[in-house]
Amino acid sequence: MSLNETFWFNFDPSLCTLDICPLQFAQVRYDPSLGGNALYLSIFALLLFIHIFLGIRYRTWGYFGAMFGGLVLELVGYGARIKMHFNPFLSDPYIICLTIAPVFFSAAIYLCLSRIIIVYGPEYARFRPRTYTIMFICSDVFSLILQATGGALADTASTVDASFQGINIMIAGLAFQVFSLTVFAALSLDVALRVRKGRDPQKPLRLSCSKRRFHGFLFGIGIALLAIYIRSCFRVAELKGGFQSDLANDEVTFMVLEGAMIVIASTALTLVHPGIIFGKSWGAANIHNGEHIEMKG
């Protein structure tokens, strides 16, 4: 057991401040950047207001709900990090929000695949569009439960062993998220290859927007998926060594591979918002039976 671990489970952190305790005994071995965390908080706040406006205007309720949940959790998480800047010794359970927030962004991406399949035609997918949505949303919920449970156990642990038990559950949740994203990417690629191989390029697509916009939509979804995937792999590696590992206490790495990746993902998911790309015809693509409106050339 390290000195820091021994100290944490035998003292009251509320008695510490930066004036009387060394940073070595803080939640993390650095003073969280006020400017960097405030910047991320501001970006997520701006994106949240944009999604509230777009969600109400275009009535993309499922997509809006996923993005709203993720962005609110990012705000809470970075608010907790700003609080840690002023007193890094206090344990703030809200920091776990940064771990679970990307699950909601993943859900927004998963919702898009069923609509993409309808655009090209359900005959190019291995499963019904609705099946993809149910399968991956269920995997998202399972990942969320594991991460939230592990985070709660780690935060309330009274012993090192109990803390690592919680961390291991969090890692399991993150690893399952990586697995789900990998399967999702593989099935998306499968649909793309089937479309490329078997679809007549002259056959009209099934949503009312330009092909250029639709291809931009696909590109944005791909960027968001890649960013979340990179971030999730980083968090698995970060937590593998526990909260006191060197990687878990490297702020620059965290701000780039956690913060910046999620900013990229959430920004991409905002720029290619279904309402902006498809207008109200997004709701016309019924995932139950594939009813459609033809896409403009």
Kindly list the characteristics that best describe this protein.
about 300 residues; mainly alpha; elongated
Please outline the helices and strands:
Layout: H1 3-8, H2 34-58, H3 61-86, H4 97-120, H5 129-156, H6 160-198, H7 211-240, H8 251-271, H9 274-278
Helix pairs in contact: 2-3, 2-8, 3-4, 4-5, 4-6, 4-7, 4-8, 5-6, 6-7, 7-8
In short:
This protein is an all-alpha fold and 297 residues long. The chain is built from 9 helices and no strands. The longest helix is centred in the middle third of the chain and has 39 residues, at 160-198.
Characterization of this structure:
By secondary structure, this protein is an all-alpha fold. It is built from nine helices and no strands. Helix 2 packs parallel to helix 8.
Label the structural class.
mainly alpha
Distance between the termini: 65 Å
Mean of residue pLDDT?
A: 86
Number of separate strands: 0
Largest sheet: none
Q: Provide the succession of SSEs.
A: HHHHHHHHH
List unreliable stretches of 5+ residues: 287-297
Number of helices: 9
Q: Tell me, what's the shape?
A: elongated
> Strand portion, in percent?
under 5%
Residue share in helix = 55-70%
The radius of gyration is: 21 Å
